[in-house]
Every structure is written in C-alpha cells, then in structure tokens.
C-alpha cells in the first residue's frame, strides 16, 4: 500500500468542512452569535418595554388624583360645573344626598360618591363614550363601566319616585291661568310617542326600523302641562305605531280616567280618558304658521288649541335631549336593556330637577275658581270622548264669535272717535283762520 494513500480510520476521526472549519467550530460560532443577539434584545427591552400599566397612562396619580380633580371641579367656577355636568352645584348636592339615602349607589375607599356621581352626570350630559370620560376624570374605563351600571339602577329608583301618574282628583292649574285653555278643564297632560336612537346587533335590527328607516326605540310619554313627566314607557321597537303603543301602555300600567283626560295625536284613536283632534282638519302648528287665515269653523279652532296643548310633549322632550346629550345618540357600549334605563334615568332626573324649582302659587280668587270647577268637572264631564270633544268645540266657537263681534264693535268705535276728532280739528283750524283774517 503506498505511503500517501488515504487512511479510512483518519476520515472517521476528523471531519472538516469545505471552508476549512470543523463542525465543532461552526457550532461554537453559531452559539456566540445567538448569545450576542439575545444580549442586544435584552438591552432593547430595558429601554422600550412592551408591557404597559394602563392605570399609569390614564392617571399617573391614581385614585387620589381623580378625587383631587373632582374637588377642583366642585370648588371651581359655577359656569364650568354646569356646562360639564348639566346641573348646578346646589342641585348636585341635593341629588347626592337623595341618592346616598334612597339608593344602593355608595362611595368606596377609592372613589367617593361625589366622584361617581360626577362621572355619571358627565357621561349622560355630554353624551360621550366611557373612554372619553375615563381620560377626562383620570380613572380606568372599567371603573366608568361599573359606575354607569350602578348609576343607571340608582337613577331608575329616582324615576320610580318622581315620575308619578296623576290621581283621579288631580287638576292642572294651567286651564285656570291661561284663558285659551279654560275649556280643557279636566286635562291632566298630553300623550305622544317619540323616537330615540337605538343601537341593536345586526341580526335583530329589522323590527327596530321606524318609518324613516332609522333604528330607534319608540317611547310613549305622558307630560303634565307644567312640563314634567307623569308616565314613560321605553323599549318598544321603532316599527310600532301609536295605536299599538298606547294599547301596550294600557296593558302595562298607564291609567286613564273617565272624568280626567289627556290630549293626544289622532293616531292613538279616541278612547276614554284621551281627547284626539278632528281628522282631516288642519292641525299641526306648522300648518297654521304658513296660513294667513284663522280658524274658519269650530273644528279648526278646536284643533288649533288642542295642538297648542299637545305640543308640550315635544317641547319637554326637546329640552331633555338638549340637556342630556346621551339621548341624541345610540352608543354601542350599552345593550338595549341599558339603553332603556338611560331613558328612564334622564326623565327621572328631569323631574327631580323640576321638583327643586319654586312653582307660582294661585291667588285666592283662582283657588276658589279651581275648587268650584273641580266639583263641576266631577259631576258634568261626559265620559264619551267624542261627546266631550264636540262640547268643547261648540263652547269655544261661540266664545270666539262673540269675541270677534266685540272686537269689531270696539274697532268701529275707535274709528268713529278718530273721525270725529279729525272733523273737530278741521273746524277749529277754519275758525282760527277766520279770526286771524279779521
């Protein structure tokens, strides 16, 4: 065997790579490279952490800073307080006292009742998202969610306490103090339906579309003539019409009396305790604004004054929407049950705030007239709504004709006196000119 012939045993003992490095050297180089990359990655993680504490981002000062922000808001300018929370400071303290005594909404070691109430009022007043309220007050979004859940239940208790239906003996003062309403004595308010924007999952949206192709909930409201709610039924689908809405409300808890009545739209239909306008006769106030002619018969006069009474529902709900902006939108953060509670919370808070206002008192003559008319209405108001409507229309029209005749005679007398005065002045001027010439 030649001396330079390859030895197979030598090949098994030592294996070299093509570039001159052995396998062990290759493994060593790879290991060093991995260690170097790991050390560089650790340095980067030290300078740029990938995990953040959300509470430190929202409010680095914690719950103490949130409480301090709330105290600054309470001790700050009244105008800013009202613009953000939609109530005055006096109203806020009275509301907080009532809630602490009558509801389960309480303060905790981390958040006081005042801070929770401010967050709740801010959300419903501004109509903002829970995320925006969390950043504004410096709390976590989960805290705002819990506050809204407990707050809606607490304000539902306010609704049950302050939104109360009239008793059969109740009489509104407006027909006494407003001459054009005197023939509607026995009226305890107005009834109408209003649509509130709703958010519903896609699979259940069909029945929530109203006639304008918007997703809404149809809310039935009964409003006293002083602008306070006496009954609210929320949660009906937007596709429900007025007649079905009224039937559903009567099957639930709406009370209608034979010797007292609400005024309502013609879509509800005539029934005991509800006066509706004449169908086919101009009714809405916008129709009267564009017309240059006044009422031409008793039906038109009745519809005009009926519309002026019923408009109180639209006015009141419009004021509620302007005050509590959450009523204008349909935030997807709340399911349909909580959206219903939002309607009850806002209407209950509206009545609570109205109860803090001073109401004008009747004088002695008005109180005596109120007592006599109450006794008269108890014995003489017909229970048939159509008969009552015709009686009111006839009495109003007779008074209207008498008033027109009286005004015609008064205007003729004024014109006659002006004419006589004008003649007298001309005669005096002529006599004076004759004397000067002589």
How many distinct domains? 3
* Beta fraction: 5-15%
Summarize the main sheet.
5 strands, mixed
Low-confidence stretches: 4-17, 43-48, 432-438
* Proportion of helical residues: 55-70%
Helix-strand category:
alpha/beta
What is the C-alpha radius of gyration, as a whole number of Å? 38 Å
First and last CA, distance:
178 Å
Mean pLDDT score, rounded?
A: 84
Strand order of the largest sheet: 3-2-1-4-5
Question: Count of helices?
Answer: 16
Short description:
It is built from 16 helices and five strands. The protein has 438 residues and is α/β, with parallel strands linked by helices.
Quickly list its features:
3 domains; alpha/beta; single chain; 438 residues; 5-stranded mixed β-sheet
Describe this structure in words.
This protein has 3 domains: 62-162; 187-335 and 368-376, no CATH class; 386-435, no CATH class. Mean pLDDT is 84; it is low at 4-17, 43-48 and 432-438. The chain is of the alpha/beta class and 438 residues long. Helix 7 (113-126) crosses helix 9 (141-162), helix 8 (130-137) packs across helix 9 (141-162) and helix 13 (298-323) packs across helix 16 (385-437). It is elongated. The longest helix is centred in the last third of the chain and has 53 residues, at 385-437. The protein has a 5-stranded mixed sheet with strand order 3-2-1-4-5, with helices on both faces. Helix content is 57%, strand content 8%. GO terms for molecular function: hydrolase activity; metal ion binding; nuclease activity.
């Amino acid at each position: 065997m030649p001396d330079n012939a390859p030895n197979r045993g030598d090949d098994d003992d030592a294996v070299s790579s093509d570039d001159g490095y052995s396998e062990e050297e290759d493994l060593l180089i790879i290991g060093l490279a991995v260690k170097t990359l790991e050390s560089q990655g650790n340095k980067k993680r030290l300078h740029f952490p990938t995990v953040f504490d959300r509470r430190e981002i929202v409010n680095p000062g914690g719950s103490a800073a949130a409480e301090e922000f709330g105290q600054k808001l309470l001790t700050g300018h009244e105008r800013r307080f009202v613009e953000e929370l939609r109530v005055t400071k006096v109203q806020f303290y009275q509301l907080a006292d009532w809630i602490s005594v009558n509801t389960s909404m309480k303060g905790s070691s981390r958040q006081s009742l005042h801070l929770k109430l401010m967050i709740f009022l801010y959300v419903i007043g501004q109509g903002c998202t829970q995320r925006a309220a969390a950043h504004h007050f410096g709390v976590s979004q989960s805290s705002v969610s819990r506050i809204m859940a407990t707050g809606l239940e607490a304000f539902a208790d306010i609704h049950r306490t302050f939104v109360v239906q009239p008793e059969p003996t109740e009489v509104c003062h407006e027909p006494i103090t407003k001459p054009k309403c005197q023939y509607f004595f026995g009226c305890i308010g107005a009834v109408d339906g209003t649509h509130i924007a709703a958010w519903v999952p896609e699979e259940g949206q069909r029945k929530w579309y109203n006639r304008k192709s918007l997703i809404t909930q149809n809310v039935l409201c009964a409003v006293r003539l002083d602008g306070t709610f006496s009954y609210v039924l929320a949660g009906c689908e937007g596709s429900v019409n007025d007649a079905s809405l009224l039937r559903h409300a009567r099957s639930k808890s709406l009370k209608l009396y034979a010797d007292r009545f609400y005024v309502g739209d013609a879509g509800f239909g005539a029934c005991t305790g509800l006066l509706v306008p004449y169908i086919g006769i101009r009714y809405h106030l916008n129709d009267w604004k564009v017309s240059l002619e006044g009422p031409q018969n008793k039906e038109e006069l009745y519809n005009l004054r009926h519309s002026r009474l019923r408009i109180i529902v639209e006015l009141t709900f419009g004021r509620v929407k302007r005050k509590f902006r959450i009523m204008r939108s349909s935030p997807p953060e709340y399911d349909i049950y909580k959206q219903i509670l939002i309607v009850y919370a806002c209407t209950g808070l509206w009545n609570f705030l109205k109860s803090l206002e001073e109401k004008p008192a009747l004088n002695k003559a008005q109180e005596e007239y109120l007592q006599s008319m109450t006794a008269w209405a108890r014995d003489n108001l017909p229970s048939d709504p159509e008969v009552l409507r015709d009686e009111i229309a006839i009495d109003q029209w007779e008074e209207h004709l008498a008033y027109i005749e009286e005004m015609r005679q008064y205007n003729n007398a004024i014109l006659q006196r002006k004419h006589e005065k004008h003649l007298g002045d001309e005669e005096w001027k002529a006599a004076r000119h004759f004397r000067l010439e002589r």
